[in-house]
Write the structure tokens for this entry.
Amino acid sequence: MALRIYNTLTREKEEFTPISGKDVGLYTCGPTVYNYPHIGNYRAYIFSDMLKRYLKYKDYNVNHIMNITDIDDKTIRQSQVEHKSLKEFTEFYTEAFFHDRDLLNIIPADTYTKATDYIPQMIKMIETLLDKGYAYKTQDGSVYFDIHKDKEYGKLSHFKLEDLKENAGGRLKKDEYEKDNAEDFALWKSWDESDGDVFWNTSLGKGRPGWHIECSAMSIDKLGESFDVHTGGVDNMFPHHENEIAQSECATGKSFVKYWMHNEHLLVDGHKMSKSMGNFYILKDLIDKNFDPISFRLWVYASHYVSKANFTFESLNSNQIALNKIKEFYLDLGKEMGIINDNYKNLFIEAMDDDLNTPKGLAVLWELIKDKELSNKDKKATILDFDKVFGFGLSNLEKEIIPIEIETLAKERLLARENKEWQKSDTIRDQIKSLGYEIKDLGNDYKISKI
């Protein structure tokens, strides 16, 4: 069976064929560390994690790079509001992101690239674009990319440059803007007073990079001038990813990324997240309402990544209940490990090979759970196999360290039950309970958990 994925660049579902054998270069647009990421951001990061997990599940060797945007309009402005240096400010929110990442059981990227560590690579790329005539310098010392010089500009967003000529006669210095405002974009921003003490003295002059050049320079430095997969939220498709393609391909003369994968928007109660509407949530908001972060991960999988997903606390609660059932069922299977069931594995692969169809993949998991013919030990092995992709962390549930005294009592009780010494069995059970643990019988086995 072959993995097929939806390529935003071609608007088609294509068979996944890496550039170089079983090696996959994967780049994920990471957080801009000016605040805590919201749950819409985490939909993108969970999707990227699931993609990486499945590629590894299919025996690909994945080199995963994620950027940390620690220099842009937002980080500068907000650090000034909080009266902190840019480094101090961005490091705080970088660590906050890593904390949330671990709570969501997202596998760390192989490399995290901070934009401020790659200024020389950005300068080199900008100078190449100047030399090739794709960029120009203005009187104030800023450098802009000339979108009219790139005949393929717009191929990711699928609009024609001719349709924008009326709006594309000027230039934009701000990082983010809408498609209707497409104009020449800033590669290098000359310093002005609003930047404060944030600047670099370079061959281009005193200033700082534009947002878009950052990801191009970092991804090419770590993955090469052409690599396999670039992921991100659909909101990054324009202008960010469009501009990445333009500047990268014009600088190198090579195809930049083979497969572009974008997850759709996350809505809240049917609306775009907005602080003014009171429907803007970060992960801590979910935790404060006593939700397991992994329940949000399960919620993400309930919708296909290319579909809009509508978040409600009612739906999250349903997924919390479902997650608890999965955990409870898994623990009730006992300690013995069997073999992975080929039938269910093939059904799971069939679902996931179809553009990472997690709703179908979850349906296979529930079918497996309900199967009364399959042995507990084989169910356990098969569920753990699926969890390599889902990332619920089920194997960690068994890692609670049980005191030797409790384990000894449990084994004595099991022997008493085998000898049909029911009164002794009950006495030991009560003794275990008095020590803060409970024991649940599982046929010829048992499960111990802390009360």
The mean pLDDT is 93. The radius of gyration is 26 Å. Residues 400-450 form one domain. The chain has three domains: 16-263, 268-398, 400-450.
